[in-house]
Amino acid sequence: MSDRSRAMTRRRPQRHLPLQVLLGFLVVYFLVPFWWVIVNSSKDAPGLFGGGNTLWFADQIDYLGNLGQLFSYDNGIYGRWILNSTLYAVAGGVGATILAVMAGYGFAKYRFAARRFSFALVLGALMVPATALVIPTFMMFSAFGLTNTVWAVILPSLLNPFGVYLMHIYARDAVPDEILDAARADGAGEVRTFLQVAFPLMRPAVVTVLLLSAVASWNNYFLPLAMLSDNRLFPVTVGLGVWQGIASGNNAGSTSLWSLIIMGALVSVIPLVIAFFTLQRHWRGGLSVGGLR
Amino acid sequence: MTLLIENSAPRTQEKTPRIRGKVRLREHLMGWLFVGPFGIVFLALLIAPLAYALYLSLFQKKLIGGTSFVFLDNYAKAFTDPSFLSGSWFVIRFSLVSIPLQIIVALAMALILDGVTSLFTRFSRLMIFLPYAIPTVIGAVMWGFLYSKSFGPLTDIFGMFGATPPDFLSGNLIFYGLVNVVTWQWAGYYMIILYAALQGIDPALYEAARMDGAGKWQIALRIKIPLIVPALLLILVFSLIGTLQFFNEPQILRFLAAGTISSDFTPNMYAYQQAFALANFNYGSAISFALGGIVFVGVYAFLFITRKRRSFL
Fold this sequence. Notes:
The complex is a heterodimer of chains A (293) and B (313).
Chain A: H1 3-11, H2 17-40, H3 45-49, H4 63-72, H5 77-109, H6 115-125, H7 134-143, H8 151-157, H9 161-174, H10 177-185, H11 190-219, H12 222-227, H13 236-249, H14 255-278, H15 280-289
Chain B: H1 2-7, H2 17-56, E1 59-62, E2 66-69, H3 73-78, H4 82-115, H5 119-129, H6 136-147, H7 154-160, H8 174-199, H9 204-211, H10 216-227, H11 229-244, H12 248-256, H13 267-277, H14 281-305
Antiparallel strand pairs in B: 1-2
């Protein structure tokens, strides 16, 4: 596309007030749950259940008190859950990304035996529902004594066929064969060519795949729910789900647990929101890489 | 080694067959070296579990007589099991309502954001995309609060007009309660994909259309939407795969909506219950595998029908 014509359409001031108002309503809709959690995590149990305005602050604003309770409840189990989630997201994300980058590069740049067939398998795997694998994986892991360990969550997170697909497209389009051949002619081995020539060219897509797989691990619920029984290994998603089950189970006796859940939901979201805002360029970059051309 | 590579840059014609053979072997080896690690994970954590699920699903465990080979009995049981059938019917109905809704909302937002450029639209784009960063479980927890009678705002808001608030956790409305949670969670993500596709269109096309007298609506309907059909189809495939496996949101809201969401609400919840609550792994595997089969066939059929209109896969 020509940059000049794009700049021209950009420069024209466009107001469209009705559309902007409509957009305003949509923004409110998408932000309401966040607002509710921010407001209500400031309240103590009487403030929560006292029948005051649920979308505004109560007289008592006690973030620090609720935070202290959240991190001290049950010997600080919540802090452990956050750390577990971090471990699963980092280990699963980095591992899956390394595998996906290597495989995507391999598929794009080498003509090896059974390449077409293997790549067709990877594409087919995109359509396999991840949850269909949970029950048999659990059975296999329990045979090896791996259930209820961190490996039960990390190992299945390493499988990211979509990452391979993304990296394949990106390596094919962004890494010219000529540069690789030139590096080889200069005496670089295959591994060095990959690490020092191809990898820097693939970096934008690598960051995207890393983000997508780390977020997928952080958000995972079904897999750890099935694999883990020791609550000290839970990620924060499973932990909060368990708390919610307990709090809903005994209505009267659990008012204090509710305020912990609300605060817990807020705290669990903060790292993601920060990552989201600081890295938004990479998120969006990757989505347009996603083979949509 | 260097010499060999130098001599053997691919696509050069003057090579002796002997060296080419060596080079080919080297390329095979290097290719497999790069793909191998992923290949091992792929075999161990995708192919093996699938094969194992298929194997498990062909057996039945009885109190008397232990485990016995029953061939397709579990599948015959699943496809006549009211729990599995009603769950499947629910996710199909849910897909038919929620996917078009999400895509229409996402498309409308993407067209607005593509057509109107201001500081506010840039801010909106970010805010609308934000729920994608939230785990589905936490999203369901947050909407559970908003739906709740004891501390949700619905009682207040409807109370102002003297009306009774709708209970999105009741049997009649839980369907729409879940549609809302899913739309909130995913519409922003789909919007970003569509927006990226719209931004990739050459603006010269709009200029040409304007010359021919096309208005904004006509440009949107006749140029923009047709050109992003591949992106729309991609979203459709993703959302179909995701929705048929529906699990997290109903599983979380289940606690709040006691009695409304049963443990066999969706096929995935039913498989989970069979395997982990009742330790009936054989039947659970059969349900998982049957569901996986439905998803695979559905998506494959969809890809086949649309093969001329998409550029991916």
